[in-house]
Design goal:
26 helices; alpha/beta; 926 residues
């Protein structure tokens, strides 16, 4: 039976009592062989059960060799250089040679018992069915690391620094599995190590790996090292360069080495890194207490020393050579790995005896490698490192040491004045972590770092932008209030009377509602609002925004629709109640959808993490089925907008005193441009920047009410000032203000620039005596008085031929014309080379300062028309009524045209005209 010991020598020393890890582990192997062969149960009680077992370990024929470092292939070379294939292999104490030897063990069909290996490949039933390990593997180590973190209240935001190696990946996966199982956030950063130099490329350097951890903001850092003596210094230098050793990080090392060796290197950066850190590792019972292994160690005499020196593979003068004096076992304490190699030897020997027992003595004293391997995995005993048993069936790790069979400790690194380190926390099989003395952290206190991570970027709304939003909202709100007050103060002036103040009040109120939406989007957790308050603010946004928009555009539409009905000859009184139906319907439809949304699926405040590693998050208003409500709500908001545009188009030829058609077109264009600019900004920055998204919303919510107030009220203010000064810049005739068309009571509004019709003294006297038709504009919107009285028309020849065409499609009850009638279209027939007559129909109201409505037309000498007035009593209308037959582009009078059924000779026309001039009487149109 052969044995392999890990002889990773690192230096020489002339002190005969000096030892190193490899030599100390060889001493543990010598002690184990002696105890097994003698069946000395002082350290392993189970040995007395195998007194009759014929198995002996032939120490004289055992091969001992040095692994020559973790990355060499010395163990493989030594195996092939041996003359005979051993019956079993024991050791080594590092992962790389353990993986190599596990492959050779499977090829040779002999068992291998490693003293230490984190690699799961080594103990896997698939990859290494002939290998077992007495050292806890990566799964067991990860479990204890995570439970220790929870024991220290470091229950979240853990970063792992690991090497890009086979074992490094396994450690990462094992630790990640444990962290995920406990719902702990974690990240990992890897470095590469050059086997010859210990340094790496810049992309995967120690510095780059540590910088990635710092950028994550995680304050608990677990470091897994393949070779601590090589990796520790560059990591410590990187930590110093990044200022990560100032007491605000908690470092936990995830590997095994003798802690005292770290401080043998005189490096201040290493000492600063380790001070207050923890090193989690399994503890052998010889460290925990003065157990039988420790006692047996100190009882060894010269015979054991002679065997130890004889088995030493190093030659005098070679680096790492150690010679043991006779008092070696009394002076030199066993190093960390000695007890694990002791148990590995015991496992190989007891396994052989157990295999013979299972076979029932049918082997004639010989064992196959497979039988021996099965005996090892089935054996159980209490050794120097605790209870030894193999197999983790749930992970198919038949050669792994069973979970919960080892004791663990947390080494607390301290200063030189504090004797370098202590073991304040331990966990024993079947127990949780127990604190014996206070743990000292990097700030030299017993309290861990206050933060588990850097305060992550929460994308809170910046105070400067919030103040800007409130300032803009204040400007908008104050403008709405000022506009409303101005309308109220000047409501009796003809400019405001014609503009229908009632609807202007509604527009002001709608803009005030729109701008108040800025309040709802200007708060987050940084201003002390809780989730419930923020959720209520979220739900108020669609209420204020949609209702404000519907109010504004519904008011504008109703206002334009009302004036259009007045000018449509519909012969009906137009009160506000006659036109507010659509406004109320749209308003109620909006409220219905908003109520459903609020009750069934309200918007709620949700803070969503943007980056799992850095913890950056952003707060937003969210709803599960937001599209089901936003779609119909947008449709309702678009309806009054389109209707307003349509009605503005229909009233584009109406005098600006009564309508805002041009400014409505400009308003819609401006707001459409604002949407085109703001909507993409909001969509792009929604998940990126709270400030950017907020700024986009503020621009939108401020531009809409301000553009409405500016384009609707500023023109009226200017018109008011012009009316006060008696200035009129309107040069284009429109409905309500045409050449020869006046509205009684509106003389202060219109100062006609065109020359009025010239009339003869005969006509003036005739009109003065005639009854008239009057339209009176009152103070309360349109307070109207319409009197259908008698009207007289006069025909006067003009020196030029003119052509008059009435508006196509205009509804007409009566018109003064000559030509043919086609439905509602009237067009004057042009008579070539014949003199034209000016058909002037005049309505005069003696009771209203001579208000006159006139219209121009023409006729030829070949045609005659009779005009008759529509007689009736005057009718007083209530406030907010508008009588329809007023203010027309063509002549809109309550008159009836009767066309002569037969042609009248020209001489009769001339005769009639002469008679008219003589009698100064008007021809009736009836």
């Amino acid at each position: 039976m052969g044995g392999v010991a890990n002889m990773a020598f690192t230096g020489t020393n002339d002190n005969p009592s000096f030892t190193n890890d490899g030599f100390s582990m060889l001493a543990g192997a010598v002690l184990a062989i002696k105890h097994f062969n003698e069946r000395n149960d002082s350290a392993v009680e189970e040995l007395h059960h195998y007194m009759d077992c014929p198995v002996q370990i032939d120490i004289d024929n055992s091969l001992v060799f040095n692994t020559d470092g973790s990355f060499s292939h010395a163990s493989s070379r030594s195996f092939f250089q041996s003359k005979d294939i051993p019956c079993a292999m024991v050791g080594p104490f590092s992962d790389f040679p353990a993986v190599e030897l596990s492959v050779l063990a499977q090829a040779a069909q002999i068992p291998l018992v490693t003293a230490r290996s984190f690699s799961l490949r080594v103990v896997s039933d698939v990859y290494s069915p002939f290998t077992s390990s007495v050292f806890p593997d990566a799964v067991a180590s990860a479990t204890q690391v995570v439970t220790f973190l929870q024991h220290q209240n470091r229950s979240n935001y853990t970063a792992l620094l690991y090497p890009l190696s086979d074992v490094g990946f396994q450690r990462r996966e094992a630790l990640g599995f444990e962290l995920d199982d406990r719902n702990m956030h974690w990240m990992s950063s890897a470095y590469t190590q050059d086997a010859s130099m210990g340094y790496v490329s810049t992309s995967r350097s120690y510095l780059a790996a540590m910088r990635a951890i710092k950028n994550s903001g995680y304050r608990t850092i677990v470091i897994a090292l393949d070779d601590p003596l090589v990796d520790m210094q560059p990591i410590a230098d990187a930590v110093e360069l990044l200022a990560m050793n100032r007491g605000d990080y908690f470092y936990v090392f995830y590997d095994v080495m003798e802690p005292s060796h770290v401080f043998e290197v005189e490096n201040k950066n290493i000492q600063k890194l380790l001070f207050g850190a923890a090193w989690i590792l399994p503890l052998s019972e010889d460290i925990i207490m003065d157990n039988m292994f420790w006692k047996s160690w100190t009882e060894q005499g010269q015979d054991s020393v002679d065997v130890l020196n004889a088995l030493n593979p190093m030659k005098p003068g070679e680096e790492g050579y150690v010679f043991a004096n006779s008092d070696f076992f009394q002076i030199a304490e066993p190093e960390y790995g000695s007890a694990y190699l002791y148990d590995a030897i015991m496992a190989a020997g007891i396994g052989a005896c157990h295999a013979l027992e299972m076979l029932g003595g049918t082997t004639n004293g010989t064992l196959t490698g497979a039988d021996h391997n099965e005996g090892i995995r089935q054996s159980e005993f209490r050794g120097a490192t605790g209870y030894i048993a193999f197999g983790q069936r749930q992970f198919f790790l038949g050669g792994a040491r069973k979970l919960g069979t080892s004791s663990w400790g947390a080494i607390n690194f301290l200063s030189e004045e504090q004797d370098w380190f202590d073991i304040p926390d331990m966990v024993f099989p079947g127990t949780e972590w127990i604190n014996f003395v206070p743990f000292i952290f990097a700030d030299n206190t017993t309290s861990p770092p206050a933060l588990l991570r850097d305060l992550p970027e929460q994308n809170y709304l910046s105070p400067a932008l919030r103040n800007l939003g409130f300032a803009l909202m204040g400007i908008s709100g104050l403008s709405a209030v000022c506009a409303c007050v101005w309308v109220f103060v000047c409501r009796k002036h003809k400019v405001l009377t014609a503009a229908q103040p009632f609807f202007l009040y509604i527009v002001c109120f709608g803009t005030l509602v729109q701008s108040s939406t800025i309040i709802s989007i200007s708060f987050d957790e940084s201003w002390g609002w809780n989730e419930k308050q923020l959720s209520q603010a979220c739900m108020s946004v669609p209420w204020l925004l949609s209702l404000g928009h519907v109010i504004v555009y519904s008011a504008l539409f109703t206002k334009l629709w009302r004036i259009n009905k007045v000018l449509s000859f519909s012969r009906q009184r137009v009160k506000i109640k006659h036109v507010v139906g659509p406004m109320i319907a749209l308003f109620m439809a909006s409220i219905f959808i908003l109520v459903l949304w609020t009750v069934l699926d309200p918007l709620k405040w949700d803070r969503r993490e943007l980056n799992e590693q850095t913890g950056e998050s952003i707060g937003q208003c969210q709803s599960k089925h937001i599209g089901a409500y936003v779609g119909p709500l947008l449709a309702i908001m678009i309806i009054p907008t389109l209707l307003t545009g349509l009605m503005a188009y229909k009233t584009k030829d109406v005098d600006e005193a009564f309508t805002e058609s041009w400014w409505v077109f400009v308003l819609m264009l401006v707001q459409l441009e604002v949407i085109f600019v703001s909507a993409p900004v909001i969509a792009i920055l929604r998940n990126e920047s709270t400030d950017g998204e907020y700024l986009g919303f503020v621009v939108l919510l401020w531009s809409f009410p301000m553009s409405t107030l500016t384009l609707i009220f500023i023109p009226k203010v200017l018109a008011y000032r012009r009316a006060i000064r008696g200035v009129d810049v309107n040069q284009q005739p429109k409905r309500g203000e045409h050449k020869g068309t006046r509205v009684s009571g509106m003389e202060d509004i219109h100062s006609h620039s065109s020359e009025p019709y010239r009339t003869s003294s005969v006509e003036q006297s005739s009109w003065a005596e005639a009854p008239s038709s009057t339209v009176k504009v009152g103070n309360g919107g349109f307070e109207n008085e319409f009197s259908n009285r008698s009207a007289h028309s006069r025909l006067e020849a003009v020196p030029e031929v003119k052509e008059s065409k009435l508006a196509s499609g205009t509804r007409m009850e009566a018109a003064c014309y000559f030509g043919e009638v086609h439905g509602h279209e009237q067009e004057t027939r042009r008579i070539s080379d014949e003199p034209r007559l000016d058909c002037r129909m005049t309505a005069d109201d003696n009771s209203n300062n001579g208000g006159v409505v006139t219209h121009d037309s023409a006729t030829s000498n070949d045609e005659v028309a009779e005009f008759a007035t529509s007689n009736g009593d005057s009718e007083e209308l209530e406030p907010d009524e508008i009588e329809p037959e007023t203010l027309s582009q063509s002549m809109r009078e309550d008159v009836t045209l009767t066309q002569t059924q037969q042609a009248i000779p020209d001489e009769q026309v001339n005769k009639d005209r002469v008679e008219e001039n003589k009698s100064d009487q008007a021809l009736p149109c009836n």
